[in-house]
Amino acid sequence: MIYISIVIGCIIGALIGMNAPIIPYTYSIYLSIAIIAALDTVFGGIASVINKNFDLKIFLSGFFGNAILSMLLTYLGEKLNVDIYLAAIFVFVWRMFNNLGIIRRYYIEKWTNQFQAKWNEKK
Amino acid sequence: MKEKIILSISIGCAALILTMVMFTQFKTIEYTDIVALETMREAELRAELASWKSKYEEAETKMGDTKQKITEYQTQISSEQNATELLRQELIESQKTLGYTDVQGEGIMITLENGEEKVDRFDLISLINELRLAGAEAISVNDERVVFKTDIALPTSEIFLINSKRISGPYTIKAIGEMKYLESAITIKNGYLDQRKTERKKSQLRNSNQYHHS
């Protein structure tokens, strides 16, 4: 059920996004930083599912909160003439790789165990 | 079960928003994929923008200067037009005085004829002087315009020369000017006509609104 809702959401979102009006180039930096923040939260969510401590409230608050906060930081950086968004991207991508590492380790462990079990069965 | 529905709906919503924003961004980047914009670094773009801005300001100040100059010239032109208008009027006056232009208007006509005494050139000269004093703008004798260089000579006893042209009596003197003044100057008591009467010469005065001197 969760997977179905994710797929439907992705398809509808893609359709809306393709028909949406173009955003001015100056503001596209805000959108991109928001996307990075949201992606980080998504990977974090997957990692927490694997660790079995997933919480919907934390996920949603992280999803929207991080996006809005990073946009605000970018705006502030533009006002201060400092590229704060670079720091935000750095932190988000770093966390993303961490979470990806957790996910990767989990699945590799799982598959190796399955493979090992099959191997043992054959023997 | 209820919790699962809420969970799936909220995660679906999150996925929807994420993909929507992502695709919008893809599209935006694709449409603004201008080579110059991409290859230029932001600092370069800023410098370019600043230079264009300064150029624009320069052009604007130049335009202001030019506009001011134009208004100056225009005021000058209008003042020059006033001057030319004055000059033109002066020229017309001068031409009238010199007899280069035709003059038309109200005036008087006097006819001199030999009576018991003959009309002599002094009669003509004094009449012309009287008329000039009375403010005549243009005078003619037998349609011969009297101007500043007109000569009135008497080579024989019968024939006058006016403008070196022969004329003979009766002499018709036309004068254009303020009719009232001209008439009163001639008909005043002991004036020109009275004197001619005492000298027994025939003279006649006529007024008209339309005399034409060429």
Describe what this molecule looks like in 3D.
The complex is a heterodimer of chains A (123) and B (214). By secondary structure, chain A is mostly helical. In chain A, 85% of the residues lie in helices and 0% in strands. Chain A has one domain (28-122). Chain A contains four helices and no strands. Chain B is α+β, with helices and mostly antiparallel strands and 214 residues long. Chain B has a five-stranded antiparallel β-sheet. Chain B has a three-stranded antiparallel β-sheet with strand order 4-5-6, with helices on one face. Chain B has a domain at 104-213: Alpha-Beta Plaits (2-Layer Sandwich). The N and C termini of chain B lie far apart (122 Å). The mean pLDDT of chain B is 80. Chain B has helices spanning 2-31, 35-39, 42-98, 121-133, 179-187, 192-198; strands spanning 103-113, 138-141, 144-146, 152-153, 160-162, 165-167, 171-176, 202-213. At the A-B interface, helix 1, helix 2 and helix 3 of A face helix 1 of B.
